[in-house]
Amino acid sequence: MNERENSDHSAEALPAATVAEITAFERIIPRLLRNILVFGILLLAPVFWFYRWMGVLGFVLGASVSYVNFRSLTSGVEGLADRIVNQNSGEKGARIVFRFLVRYVLVGVAAYAIFKGSSVAFYGFLWGLCVPVAALMAEAVWQGFKAFRRG
Prior knowledge:
Blueprint: H1 3-10, H2 16-26, H3 28-42, H4 44-85, H5 93-117, H6 119-129, H7 131-150
């Protein structure tokens, strides 16, 4: 297939099923962000049970860092995808990489500061960093449930 035929082929409209699937996948990120908040609230009681107030403070900081990190990761991936797909994108590649690296530096600095301050708060911080894992597991269960219900 030559370049002209390929460009004509890509201009065709997407089938309705594909559009519906894309729309369904666009709702995953907001649902994951909401699940991070929900699990952050639900896990406050177990963290308090194990580590008391210092652990809860570390947990809240860790969950907050996780939430901001996930939002930043989402916007970074969207910016990178826009940069790859759209050659006239206003998004600079260096800025995308810089934001990506700064996220992890900030997490490392926060973890170091908490670790030096209180080991109990550090344990809570680690629990907070794991909140997105719980949100992703809940999303996987939800997607599996939907797949089995359709099939």
